[in-house]
Design a protein that fits this description.
The protein has 324 residues and is mainly beta. The protein has one domain: Neuraminidase (6 Propeller), CATH 2.120.10. The protein contains two helices and 21 strands. The strands form four sheets. An eight-stranded mixed β-sheet has the order 6-7-8-10-14-13-12-11, with no helix packed on it. A hairpin with a 5-residue loop joins strand 4 and strand 5 (109-115). The longest helix has 29 residues, at 2-30.
Length: 324
């Protein structure tokens, strides 16, 4: 009887130690960047830069890994989490369910998050930025694809960014309370594949695709109300067309936009609105050859950017910021 009692205590002690170790590991992991390209950038770069008139310089892409889940077969959007260190958010193009995926920079699938009560007609890009509640991080998904330029309205879905543990694997979860904002172009329907959110004021930008010169449209942050229908206003134009992805740096100082085989950065004026960056110099930046590259985002520390492509097992590249 005494021996059985001791064995039970040993089992209980072992289980408690395991649970405590797992909790500590998750707590620590959430506060550290994942291994691979993020760590490489941190080793080679100085602290986060301030606004400068110098041309930004980035290294050629370093392959971090590949998209490891077979569910990720047509990734068209990528964004770096502002809430979970080392986490990237991605989604598939048209034909998939209404869901987003949390991955690491080496392509490990951390979780699949289903947006409850949402249709996914033609999701094209994803962004992370501020939203209605101060201090909260939000995810914006753009159902903005329109190959035939026939949709009277397109949609932005907005959710609070979920908490993700870097040590979790293939978690399945639902996201309720999804906000939907309907958008109309002031000059008629068109295809688009770029969604960006200004981290300084929450304004949303969409960039059209199928034209010799892509147009930049803006929606003010206070217009982004659940259930609203908003008319987008053109505020700028790119010197080239076929924009397939874009992002704004975490400090709001730079914009990056890519096409299938090119990418460029614009710098925000020291005094002025973000869209006025397009009135200034365009700085061409490296991009690796990809089968159908549509996704691009800055990393959460502003020390470089990521790209990836549609297709199963697509590579993830990181382009480190070089010292000025």
């Amino acid at each position: 009887m005494k021996r059985a009692f001791s064995v039970r205590w040993l089992i209980l002690l072992a289980f408690t130690s395991f649970a405590l170790s797992a909790s500590i590991a998750c707590f620590v992991a959430e506060r550290l960047p994942s291994s691979g390209c993020i760590a490489l950038a941190a080793d080679n770069q100085s602290q986060q830069r301030s606004t400068s008139s110098a041309a930004p310089r980035f290294a050629r892409g370093t392959k971090c890994g590949v998209l490891q889940s077979e569910e990720l077969n047509e990734v068209s959007g990528i964004a770096a989490s502002r809430k979970n260190a080392g986490v990237l958010w991605v989604h598939n193009d048209s034909g998939d369910k209404a869901r987003i995926f949390a991955i690491t920079s080496d392509g490990t699938l951390l979780g699949t998050y289903n947006l409850v009560g949402v249709d996914a007609r033609d999701w094209e890009d994803i962004a992370v930025g501020p939203g209605p509640e101060r201090g909260e991080s939000y995810i914006y998904i753009g159902d903005i694809g329109d190959n035939n330029a026939a949709r009277p309205m397109v949609f932005i879905y907005r959710v609070r960014e979920p908490s993700v543990c870097i040590s979790q694997r293939s978690l399945q979860a639902d996201i309720d309370n999804v906000e939907r904002i309907a958008l109309k172009y002031e000059d008629g329907p068109r295809d688009a594949e770029v969604v960006m959110v200004d981290p300084r004021n929450g304004d949303l930008y969409i960039v059209s695709k199928r034209a010799s010169r892509s147009k930049v449209y803006r929606v003010r942050s206070w217009e982004l109300v659940n259930g609203a229908t908003v008319t987008m206003r053109a505020v700028a134009q790119l010197p080239w067309g076929w924009a397939t992805g874009g992002d704004i740096s975490p400090d709001g100082n730079e914009i990056i936009i890519r096409g299938y085989a090119n990418a460029a950065v614009w710098k925000r004026p020291e005094s002025g609105e973000l869209w006025r960056a397009f009135e200034g110099a365009q700085y061409n930046v490296p991009i690796e050859k990809e089968p159908q590259g549509e996704a691009i985002c800055f990393d959460a520390a502003g020390k470089g950017y990521y790209t990836t492509s549609e297709g199963k097992g697509a590579a993830i590249y990181f382009y480190a910021l070089l010292a000025e």
